Amino acid sequence: MGKAVKQKPPSGRTNLASCIVATIFLIFVAIVILILFFTLFKPKDPKISVNSIQLPSFSLSNSTVNFTFSQYVSVTNPNRAVFTHYDSTLQLLYSGSQVGFMFVPAGKIGAGRTQYMAATFSVQSFPMSSAAAAQPENVGPTVTDGVNGFRVGPTMEMESRLDMAGRVRVLHVFTHHVEAKSDCRVAVSVSDGSVLGFHC
Prior knowledge:
The chain has helices spanning 12-40, 130-133; strands spanning 47-54, 58-61, 64-76, 83-85, 88-94, 97-104, 107-109, 114-127, 142-144, 149-151, 155-170, 174-189, 195-199. By secondary structure, it is an alpha+beta fold. The strands form 3 sheets. Strands 4, 5, 6, 7, 11, 12 and 13 form a 7-stranded antiparallel beta sheet that branches. Strands 1, 2, 3 and 8 form a 4-stranded antiparallel beta sheet that branches. The protein has a two-stranded antiparallel sheet with strand order 9-10. Strand 2 (58-61) and strand 3 form a beta hairpin.
């Protein structure tokens, strides 16, 4: 009869090697997750594009203006998660003072989606600045229609501001604060209320 051969228990070196291999594997997995997070899931601020600005109604009397303001924007969410935005407001300023605003309720924009928004509100009467009211009819910026340039009468400049703050939850675990802003300067002809142009 053969003798039973006793197996030696694994040495400490074997256990240490196994721990090192396991540690290296976990580090590799963590690095891959971080790379995916910062390339695919890194939170980005949404983008606001102002498509059109109009004044559907406009009146001028004794250097006091009264009009309706309309602004059409598109908000794009570039993230791979839903953008949840809080309550915000669209502000209209003239000579640094607020002359009108509209409340924008909270909502959600899907991942990679674009949402179109329209805001229309009436602006209470306010006096024009003395500089704008004193402009003669033959003075104004030159506007080019692509063929011939022509002069416009007195103009007024306003500023519209839209600030949308919210959050994006990445992988349903990590919550990040993101914000989208739009600040536009609008040039309006005082003679008829037509929008000569805007720059955001």
